[in-house]
Design a protein that fits this description.
49% helix, Rossmann fold, 627 residues, Substrate Binding Domain Of Dnak, Chain:A, Domain 2, alpha/beta, binds FE(4)-NI(1)-S(5) cluster, single chain
């Protein structure tokens, strides 16, 4: 495990502070009904579980067997995950609307080019219209697709024709973003959908409404509002906290307030106030995906992934932690009691007893951001010297790649094209592209699974794209630097990385930005020569240390889009042989994608390598250049 994490874990243990690792131990072994998915709490005939009594299988009171119960549970997970991403997208769309109307304080449209391109996709005329007017029309149109009842989503039209045909023929094409989530909840009520395959098929449609809907909306509109990412150097790990500065940690996912805090941190009167309170300055750092958002657009340092949130507070050097929503451990307020750290929640949707509440409103975005920074500064003198332990470790990283800028980096500014990437694959320098994404989980290696797997893949000339916590874990190891190519990559991949000056592991953003991986795949198909749909491309995904329902939704939208996806731990349906078989085999016959479950990162890497080899063979590509 990463040195700084180990060090802080020890500090926490010494102080008698319980962290996620100890709580996991106390919960182990986990409930076997929960793990297998054989427990149903959906109605009051139950709660039921599938058991054996006197050698006989006992099913639910209503008659639901293991297939129905586990499929229903799975679909509810997908619905929750999709809802989280899509609701995030809705927040951004709402802010774009208010910005266009001139009601959002401090916000502006920073990527006009992208705004106009999106408007074209949504068939909005842009001639002789102000940017603000276009923003309003675009936001309204996008928000209406949340409630759309029939038809098809606009952004899903980006997918290759072959994939769209599959979706249309199998009733997988999402009709509206909210509609699919609601239908998932409705179908999983007792006595509605009792066919496990039919349930999972709808689960896929719901997940697609996330990947090509809500998540893609979040990605695209965040680019419009806060500008599209550009490659940027930054630092990562607990050592980014500064002993003599006011440390503010931004944690969560929706970057609406955090970007304002970043903007406001440059305010001279606040800087001055920090000095008056005895600090050298204001130091912002992030955790989780809101960190990824401000990292890739502003180069703001990152403390770490979901697993570093408690440890950051245990440094005793965090003057204020601001949270919005998702992946925020409810343990935090209790933990802050041991330190001077002020912890503030900001979303009416995500209240935490024990945290101070400063409600975020777009209409006063900048003022609220300033108020929060002021609270942090005022808290700086309350630090307790004897409780401060900041680990030394930091690592350089390059973040901020996107579908569009990989295009330019690979092809040169004036001839942006995926040709060099496709040619790299065709010529056998690059075996394929793998997406390593998702959470960090103490049930596996607390983030290291990503690192081991990434090293094995790049050694075998697989170019890696990453998002979420996986990206931050690999960043801590130095894999997100161009120098990592020379150190760890196979010769072919090394040649490509050195020619264009990119790391072998590319940071593509936060978890909603997995939608960038979808659009990058579309560009690869469009460029030609390596397949006509995602299931023909030598691409694969993994979220080895997944923990969240969002990860299940992501996995399913990739599988539904034709890609193979590996989880290090199965989702909770292992009690149903049929559901497992459908996930790992049956679904492949429909979408071309499929699931695999493999905890060993080296074995998982080789599953991907073998898969890519097969796809290369089917495409009749040249053998790998240096094998
Ligand atoms: Ni993704 Fe980002 Fe991390 Fe997992 Fe949570 S922060 S949205 S869910 S834990 S990768």
């Amino acid at each position: 495990m990463d040195k700084a994490t180990q060090e802080m874990k020890k500090v926490a243990e010494k102080k008698g502070i319980t962290t996620i690792w100890e709580r996991l131990q106390l919960q182990s072994p986990h409930c076997k009904f929960g793990i297998s998915g054989l427990c149903c709490k959906n109605c009051n005939y139950g709660p039921c579980r599938i058991i054996t009594k006197g050698g006989q299988k006992v099913i639910g009171v209503c008659g639901a067997d293991e297939d129905v119960i586990s499929a229903r549970n799975l679909v509810r997970h997908i619905a929750a995950g999709s809802a989280c991403h899509s609701d995030h997208g809705r927040e951004i769309a709402k802010t774009l609307l208010l910005t266009g109307q001139g009601k959002a304080q401090g916000y502006r449209i920073k990527d006009e080019y992208k705004l106009k391109k999106l408007a074209e996709e949504y068939k909005i005329k842009t001639d002789n219209k102000s940017i603000e007017k276009i923003a309003v029309e675009l936001a309204e149109k996008i928000l209406s697709e949340y409630g759309q009842q029939e038809g098809e989503l606009t952004l899903i039209q980006r997918a290759p024709e072959k994939q769209k045909k599959t979706w249309r023929e199998n009733s997988l094409m999402p009709r509206g973003i909210d509609r699919e989530v609601v239908e998932a909840m409705s179908r999983t009520h007792m006595g509605v959908d009792n066919d496990y395959k039919n349930l999972i098929m709808h689960g896929m449609r719901c997940a697609l409404s996330d990947g090509w809907g809500g998540s893609m909306v979040a990605t695209e509109l965040t680019d419009v509002l806060f500008r599209s990412p550009k490659p940027v150097r930054a630092k990562v790990n607990l050592g980014v906290l500064k002993k003599n500065s006011v440390n503010i940690i931004i944690h969560g996912h929706v970057p609406l307030l955090s970007d304002m805090v970043a903007e406001a941190s440059g305010d001279l009167s606040l800087q001055q106030l920090a000095k008056e309170k005895g600090a050298e300055g204001i130091n912002l750092a992030g955790i989780c995906c809101t960190a990824n958002e401000i990292l890739m657009r502003r180069g703001i340092s990152v403390v770490g992934s979901v697993l570093q949130q408690e440890l950051a507070i245990a440094t005793g050097a965090v003057d204020l932690m601001l949270v919005d929503l998702q992946c925020i451990l409810p343990s935090l307020p209790e933990l802050t009691k041991c330190f001077h750290t002020k912890i503030v929640c900001s979303s009416p949707k995500a209240r935490f007893p024990g945290m101070e509440y400063v409600e975020f409103r777009e209409e006063e975005g900048l003022s609220i951001a300033k108020e929060i920074i002021k609270m942090a500064i005022e808290n700086f003198p309350n630090r307790k010297e004897e409780l401060i332990n900041i680990p030394q470790e930091t690592m350089d990283m390059v973040a901020g790649f996107s579908t569009e800028n990989i295009f330019e980096i690979l092809g040169g500014k004036y001839r942006g094209t995926y040709r060099p990437l496709n040619d790299g694959i065709i010529s056998g320098r690059i075996r394929g592209v793998a997406g390593l994404v998702g959470c960090s989980n103490p049930k596996l290696l607390s983030g290291d699974t990503h690192i081991i797997m990434a090293k094995e893949l790049i050694k075998h000339d697989v170019l890696i794209v990453e998002t979420g916590c996986a990206a931050l874990d690999c960043a801590r190891e130095g894999l997100l630097t161009p120098e990592a190519a020379k150190k760890y990559a196979g010769k072919g991949l090394q040649e490509i990385c050195e020619a264009v000056g990119i790391p072998p592991v590319l940071h593509l953003g936060s978890c909603v930005d997995n939608s960038r991986i979808l659009t990058a795949c579309c560009e690869m198909v469009k460029e030609g020569g390596i397949g006509n749909s995602l299931d023909e491309l030598p691409v694969a995904g993994a979220a080895m240390e997944w923990y969240s329902e969002k990860a299940i939704a992501i996995g399913w939208y990739f599988v539904a889009s034709g890609a193979p996806v590996i989880f290090g731990m199965p989702y909770h349906t292992v009690g149903s042989k049929n559901v497992m078989e459908f996930s790992t085999e049956g679904v492949e016959k429909i979408t071309g994608g499929k699931w695999a479950f493999e905890p060993d990162p080296i074995k998982a890497a080789h599953l991907i390598i073998e898969y890519m080899n097969k796809k290369r063979e089917a495409l009749k590509l040249k053998p790998m250049m240096y094998e």
